[in-house]
Amino acid sequence: MSLDVRSFFPALDQKVHDKPLVYLDSAASTLKARPVIDAMQSFDSRWASNVHRGAHYLSDQATGYYEKSREQVRSFLNAKETGEIIFTRNTTESLNLVATSLSFGQLQPGDEIVLTEMEHHSNIVPWQLAAERTGAVIKVIPMTDDGQLDLANVDQIVSSKTKVLSMVYVSNALGTINPVEKLIAKAKAVGAITILDAAQAVAVMPVDVQALGCDFLAFSGHKIFGPFGIGVLYGRKALLDQMAPYQGGGSMIDRVSFEKTTYLSAPHRFEAGTPNVTGAIGLGEACQFVDEIGRDKIFESEKALLSHMSDQLGRISGLRLYGTSDQKTNVQSFLLEGVHPSDVGQILDREGVAVRTGHHCCQPMMAKFKVPGTIRASLSIYSDESDVDRLVKAVLKSKEFFE
What is the pTM of this model? Predict the structure, then answer.
């Protein structure tokens, strides 16, 4: 393993069913890094006070740490200013925020919302709700059998009627890296708003919102060695200040009367109520942790290990790989012929190997493949060849059991 970081992850020290843990479910949630755990514990031990509203030292300190985390995320994404960074609960809430806010006057009957066939449910259902509210229509960019977007007819799908293009950067079920720069350029050419679901991308590759040219981008802390319950919505400031609030309450208002309420500008306009301050502290530390390792190094290391894992799994007779594009990272889905994925998952668990089984919140994709779900092994910076060897050995044991 080229990245010697396993010691930063205390969860790896435990055993599962009396076997050392092999954690290959990082596409669902990464393990928590020690610097993140320590930063959150330190904050809660000393500065556990609300932000932006206290008139005392503890609140001032908490506000300073909270806004420092916003700056760490801004730097991580290379956003122009901290006003473009909104803290949410997760990627799902970030996408719901955009879809809901755009429903208030910016989407009209007949407008088209373009998605892709490989979207997570969190980037499908909010747009369906928006379409129901506004009379907009959803269009879908299809997918090829090897798990890439089929762009043959993209010029007919992205048209003058397109008002929104919302797409996944890296597929959570396949690991495919989509050509988002090309699609963003097409959408911008027709004046559409562009949104990226970057939940799977942020921990494995560089993500630069200015270089990408997207209008919005969402990700979650638990996908990048950080805590649960904290996420980010990046949005271009000019667009954010035009959007209606997603929720109302304290911290997002300018003046309130029973006749009329006026709102603060972004980001505070979209952060109603008491925020997850500790989560934001952990997320900021997680972004710094990843940058100190180097996202280019992470990408190359995981790409090499993925190649080894896919090669070893592909040698098993009766095993089919799903998602075989050469433009992919850290995820390999597969099935054993004639065996339900959850049955394989149970045997792998008994061998101490943690994977994910099921539809991975991508039911339209599974319908494309005509399967109920897959077994998904996903790597991270703490994965190594011994993990892959344990996975392959456990899969072979499953195969023998069901023969």
Answer: 0.95
